Amino acid sequence: MTERPPTLDAVAQRAGVSTGTVSRVLNNAQHVSQKARQAVERAIEELGYVPNTAARSLAARRRGAVVLAISSEDPALTANLFFAEVITGVNAVIEETDLQLLLVLAASQRGQDRFTRVLHAADGVLLLALREHDPLSKLAADSGLPVVHGGQPLGHTPRHYVDADNRGGARLATEHLISLGRRRIATITGGTDQQVALARHLGYREALALAGLSEKRLAHGDFTESGGAAAMTRLLAEHPDLDAVFVASDAMAAGALDVLRERGRRVPEEVAVVGFNDIVTAQHTQPALTTVRQPIEALGREMTRMLIRLINGEQPTSLILPTELIRRDSA
Amino acid sequence: MTERPPTLDAVAQRAGVSTGTVSRVLNNAQHVSQKARQAVERAIEELGYVPNTAARSLAARRRGAVVLAISSEDPALTANLFFAEVITGVNAVIEETDLQLLLVLAASQRGQDRFTRVLHAADGVLLLALREHDPLSKLAADSGLPVVHGGQPLGHTPRHYVDADNRGGARLATEHLISLGRRRIATITGGTDQQVALARHLGYREALALAGLSEKRLAHGDFTESGGAAAMTRLLAEHPDLDAVFVASDAMAAGALDVLRERGRRVPEEVAVVGFNDIVTAQHTQPALTTVRQPIEALGREMTRMLIRLINGEQPTSLILPTELIRRDSA
DNA sequence: TTGAAAGCGCTAACAT
DNA sequence: ATGTTAGCGCTTTCAA
């Protein structure tokens, strides 16, 4: 009933060569005559031979896979397109190789147990876990495998990471507001427990400091829309004179725009607003949101390239990818 | 330097039993004494033993993995959150098992070659490929592995699939418009080359037919925002008397709303609009979009459950998951 | 209930 | 340049 797939031995027999030769052809080693190589290739074709990955990795002590682990504790990762885009980038690079992509969304404790086992089946780890002390970070580090982080967790800077230039992007956004003639520029931050939030706040402060403007107009959000609305409400109460707001995420900016509209503050005439991330929704807010775009797919690609280098024993250096201001109507 | 992980043999030695016994404990077979079992478990604990998946699958002729293959030819899959949500659902079920999740976004020809090899490392396939004659479908079918489709490709109904009730949802939406007193109800379809588009059109027609209303107000879109705008423009030109539109996707509905606003048609007073999918953006259109929500995460979950049943030799039946009307301001 | 041993399909080291 | 062979770490008969 269950036809067994052809083995390497079968190929060798068919081609009239030894298994060693077949193996050499498969791993395109040198030291194989044209003749032998062709015979093997024909036999492979005729038999429809496909190497058995399990046997291969057992014998070669390679595992032929990388794992992409996403800490789904982090609602920000799953909420927006972030995660889908990163995957697309990762996949694009993986596709060029013989590696397989193992995906783990580790939420539960159960998931973490699994994670350990998955690690034992991989040659390296791509990690998206931005919270401080995420258990995945530790498990990955303990595994001894090469690990590349996406973004920098708060607290410690990972050995190898790829991050978007959050600070630079925030500075870009704020400088844009300044160039518009705004002088009483507030900010809504993403909280204080995440590195992205801090980096964006820092970029905002840098820009203001360089221009000699006050940084006192500040409210903390939590990267959610309702959090953004609440923060905007507070800002308006405490600093009714503000003429611009740099909001650390588009979701929060959407909430802030709602509040501004309710309060009758015209955007951008009276209050200019810039967001961050360029989520799809940014095109549909009223008015359309000026924002900072991160190269998320590129982030996935570069993470994967870096991991492959690490697996090959090279020592790549961490990367910060540039962000870009997308001008729309809100500023 | 490179510490080798402990093997099953090491565990056996430590526990003072044979490798056979350790293996039995690992696969929690019967016929193992309490004493032996405990000794093995202690040894595993002490040594920090983790089974080698490659060796295991080689010996057992199981592969311990399923592949989730997404045809990224299909922009609709990658564009919205669809794909991220499906993955979340798939992951949730996989997490309960010992299976690993292999991810393939197969766009290029190169990707398809890889796909074949990945198939040989898996026990089953979850397939998201909605276009007719998608090469992935054929490759998966040829592999002889159990395959579960998400959605139904046009042309042939797969043996095993999970789909959202597109027809029912469209009917729900249209009946809602009728209940609002609308009688000249138009539709913007998603084209004619995709099963979802057809199913939604069918639901629309059913509702109208049952109410004895005309189905003549029709324009084809392509599931994109600009396509929706263009279709709305045509509709307005050909049927200026329309008082409602059922739009087969939210993206198209967003485009349609833009056109209606430009033309000065008030929504929902003069023209009521219902979309489909409940993408995040639906909450941010002007006015907020009434739409039909699909249980996408559940789709991923049910697909995976079905695949696991197939792998275990059961014969599950295909599934259609209910959709739900989300009322907002546009109808 | 347990132990012993023969592979699973491949790679790599060693011969030739 | 090619053949030979001993494993890789596990499961699974078959005996005991």
Automatic annotation (TrEMBL), chains A, B:
Mind telling me which InterPro entries this protein's record contains?
HTH_LacI, LacI/GalR-like_sensor, Lambda_DNA-bd_dom_sf, Peripla_BP_I
Keywords in alphabetical order, please. Answer: DNA-binding, Transcription, Transcription regulation
Q: Does the keyword GTP-binding apply?
A: no
Enumerate the CDD domains for this protein: HTH_LacI (cd01392), PBP1_LacI_sugar_binding-like (cd06267)
Task: Provide the GO MF annotations for this entry.
Answer: DNA-binding transcription factor activity; transcription cis-regulatory region binding
Limits of the HTH lacI-type domain: 6-60
Q: Which residues form a coiled coil?
A: none
Pfam families, per database record: LacI, Peripla_BP_3
Gene3D superfamilies documented for this protein? 3.40.50.2300, lambda repressor-like DNA-binding domains
Superkingdom as given in the UniProt entry: Bacteria
Record flagged with keyword DNA-binding: yes
Please give the name of this protein.
DNA-binding LacI/PurR family transcriptional regulator
Q: Which organism is it from?
A: Crossiella cryophila
Q: What is the lineage of its organism?
A: Bacteria, Bacillati, Actinomycetota, Actinomycetes, Pseudonocardiales
